[in-house]
Amino acid sequence: MEWTVDQLRQFVTTAECGSFSAAARHLGKAQSAVSTAIGLLEVDLGVALFDRSRRNAQLSEAGQVLLLEARELLRQAEQLDQRARSLNAGNEAALSLALDEALPYTAIATLMREISVKFPSLELTLLNGTATEVADYVEQERASVAFHFDRGPVRASFDQRHIGTVPQGVFVANGHPLADGRVVRRKDLARHRQLLMHADDVHEVAYSPRVWRSDSFYSTAEMVADKLGWAVLPVNIAHYEGFRQALQEVPCPSLALPRLSVRMLWLQGRQPGATASYVQKRFTELLRDTPA
Predict the structure, then answer these.
(1) Fewer CB within 10 Å of terminal CB in the chain, N or C?
(2) Which intervals hold domain HTH lysR-type (predicted)?
């Protein structure tokens, strides 16, 4: 077979425009050039693509079938061209991201939509998990970079970059004794079970003598909703659809809770590429714009 992508493009354009002359005008070519190209394509394929006994360019039965194939080949050719241009610009062909499950969903969803538009040929893999798990994914080389809540000192094998913060607060279930609208103090919190985040080598501050631990903010929020205790949670988790109606924030100025730090991790000696750097920059902007 000696047909070319340009011949396929002229065939598809003629079929869509309805005539050789209209296709020629659309392509900026002479009508004779378009007719000749399609004639050569027909010779090479061994079938007539158009019924020339009619005034306009009417597809033959074979032409109707091959039009679908031609469109698909042109789509693949465009995809190949896009990927080649992306690689030539220094973008990665594939990227694996590990994401802390507790990061703001709206920011993640927006980021994914924008990546799909900006890097249409990118082969993307997403791995989700707890803050500890996503760091493990990078160390195991299952992910190129990770975004997670800062859960303490970074391991020696990692490089890191702070990219933003997320607000946190004290939350209880509706109907909990602390959910009466009063400003509470630390001694008030100490009277009730505290649900703490648990991570290796990270010790959260316990304000109550009665403590339960979990390695997942979502699991912790579920226990709070079940009236098993109170917890310090990222505000975005407490406002998530499944918890929004069940949880209530308790004002406790004496805790002076700082905003949770979010960081990007990657292995030392493996500087993030152009695509990963764009993701980091854009995610930083989205976290900054996330409502408290």
Answers:
(1) N
(2) 3-60
The pair of structure tokens assigned to 91 is 């973008």
- Is the pLDDT at 291 greater than 70? The verdict is no
Domain 5-88, second-level architecture: Orthogonal Bundle (1.10)
Q: What are the pLDDT digits (tens) for 192-229?
A: 999 998 866 666 889 999 999 998 899 999 999 999 99
Fold observed for domain 168-255: D-Maltodextrin-Binding Protein; domain 2 (3.40.190)
Domain ranges of the chain: 5-88, 94-165+260-289, 168-255
